[in-house]
């Protein structure tokens, strides 16, 4: 089953996909919007990708605080999830996303991507880390 990973942010949604066998997570695109609450096009793009790639599961990063408690970003992400659930008939599961952006930035630094260019890639790489972590936790990425 092919899975999609999402890293929801105030102005972007990073997207990642697993391969058809569910073995690896690959960064995809970053969907950009002008305002946080303008989700119509973002949701339409996610639905289009989900249909195109025959996605069977969506893994959404849950931005809890370092101590594991919910903060304001969790509430916004829950609202996004509710809107997405109305748009697609695909199961959506949570995955802890603590430090995924930090890890994504470290990957880009190791690749010697200039800081000025990293914003283009960081969200989709964070989405791939979210998806990878979910797959590893469930044993999907260990086949």
Note down, in words, how this protein is organized.
- The chain has 143 residues and is of the alpha/beta class.
- Helix content is 45%, strand content 24%.
- The chain is built from 4 helices and 5 strands.
- A 5-stranded mixed β-sheet has the order 3-2-1-4-5, with helices on both faces.
- β4, α2 and β5 (92-96) form a beta-alpha-beta unit.
- α3 (100-110) packs across α4.
- The chain is globular.
- The two termini are 13 Å apart.
- The model has no long low-confidence stretch (mean pLDDT 91).
SSE class: alpha/beta
> What ranges have pLDDT less than 50 throughout 5 or more consecutive residues?
none
Q: Please state roughly what percent of the residues sit in beta strands, choosing from under 5%, 5-15%, 15-25%, 25-35%, 35-45% or over 45%.
A: 15-25%
Total number of strands: 5
Output the radius of gyration: 14 Å
The share of residues in helices is 40-55%
Biggest sheet descriptor: 5 strands, mixed
Distance between the termini: 13 Å
Q: Give the H and E element order.
A: EEEHEHEHH
Mean pLDDT: 91
Global morphology? globular
Task: Please list the strands of the largest sheet in the order they lie side by side.
Answer: 3-2-1-4-5
Number of helices: 4
Short description:
The chain is an alpha/beta fold and 143 residues long. It has four helices and five strands; from the N terminus they run E-E-E-H-E-H-E-H-H.
